[in-house]
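Revision sheet: structure tokens.
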Amino acid sequence: MVLRNGAATEGITLCGGPKRKERARVRSSPGNAKTLGDATEQPSWFSGELVTTRRRFLKYLATIPACDAATPPLRFSDASPHDAERDGVLSDSRPDIVFISVDDLNDWPTPFEGSKPTYDPRDVITPNLDQLAQQGTVFQRAYCAAPMCGPSRSATLTGLPPYVSGVTQAENIMAPKTDKFGPLLEAPTTTLPRLLHESGYQTFGAGKIFHGGGYGGRDRKFPECGVDPEDPTYDSCAWDEYAVLSKLVPKGACEPFPKDQTDISDAALPCPGPFDAETSMLPDARVARYAIDRLEQESTSEPMFLALGFFKPHKQWEAPQEFYDLYPDSALRPLDAAVERADQDDLTFTGCVTLRDARNSPSDADWDTATREAIRGYLACVSYVDHLLGTVLEAVAQRPRRTIVVLWSDHGYFMGEKRGWKKPSLYERATRVPLIIADSADPTPQSTHKLASLMDLLPTVLDYAGVADPLQYGLSLKPLVEDAGAAWSQNSVVSTFNFQSDHQRNAAQELNADVERCMEDQGVEACGPFVLACPTYPPRLEGASFALRTDRYRFIRYHEASGFGPSPGGAPLLRSELYDLDVDPDERVNLLEGGVPKALEALVKQLSVDLANKLS
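Predicted:
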């Protein structure tokens, strides 16, 4: 990465966007022969069935107006600008954007504050992520819109909050489920990659960005444009090319998952034999190679949006043995089973249920051994992905353009806290996410405790790209990346999850006069997708629960209804939990156990108002 003439280059402002220039792209084939960018080539990361597609050229102006608005660590280069830039060949000076998602990553890596699973916090081995943090801004209080892959990624990539889209469970917004009320939401046209594509960016992606894809055990040829009815996982009109790679580990590459699972430790599956990132067929190694190929081979005259989604450390914890070897028993600090069990005593019914997982929770007798093995497997995957991250960042550093690197996770993950081994929960461990944004034009290390949401990533990236945000549900984080001490207006963020959605979908609910009148007034065919427009009967969010995170407090409002929790006469109940994170960062004491104390009535009322305002 380079400074452009020693200074940051501002993103240009578009009005309708430039026309895309047609160009032949040169890529490598398996035999190292160079071929023009057509549909027959096979890039070096690929092995097997063809995945790549023909380059599509835009034939019209973009419609989005914007006039209103063990690898050596990464080092941002301060070398001279590239010849193409110096000679004026650069046709679009907006920065490259490398958008990196790491699935199920919690705050254990050392750049992020919080308790660690090792006796020495420095024993969580992520040198490349650590170095990236030394070149950018670390957001210590960043939160997901929903603590599950589908709704979190849908919200992040479309800018539509779950309480607006209705996508609060395992759906992908590009492949919404359908019930008797119709689709949850028509596939949106405002996805982040599409907005960038239409504004003149080259757009490439691989791995897990939107939820789904790669689950069929094979690579897929990506459709030219439009939603593939068999797997409408990605916005195919948004990409110049997307590598839909199989997430399945090749048979025999790692220890097999046991048919009869006993507890969470069964998910720790090391892969024996030497590991070579350049030849390995493990899914994340292939994702990294795809990214490196694009960074090395694509044109530098136009800006690139490169999205890559690493599958790990999502279970199963399949990683090369050498990364397991980084974490001996002596380094790992198991949780105390009795303490974590006692931590469930003051939870609401729903809060407790969200943490239960009979398939994963070890018995008390096996707790220490199973917990250590689970932590080892998770950390091995974290260090494995960090190694691959280093290979990608090295290629980023060699590309002669200003680059914005955005590294994020879709949600956190419980690793035994409160005896939970999962993610769908509205507590800090599940909703807090790692987030680093680095600008090669200003590689200054910063850390901020100002509140951020993954909902802010779409407006942030668009801000750097000079493209207007058509939705404006989030805030651009660019001012904080430029100066972590800048004034910031966001004093709370919301996470949403519908713990009852499956129950509600299966219930026989009939339309009534209020719903029909609301639908007619709003001009919609179902009470949703914009569910808040129909407050008298919102079936998509009936039973949805919310967590409001302020600078000091976490306020959780659960909606318990018949069929899920105790509710006399079938009437829904609203139950709340409140944590003072300044004095109780691990959320051990629910201040609302047994009701709202008189001393907290005013605070709870204010937090309830703040939550209602956020949702409106």
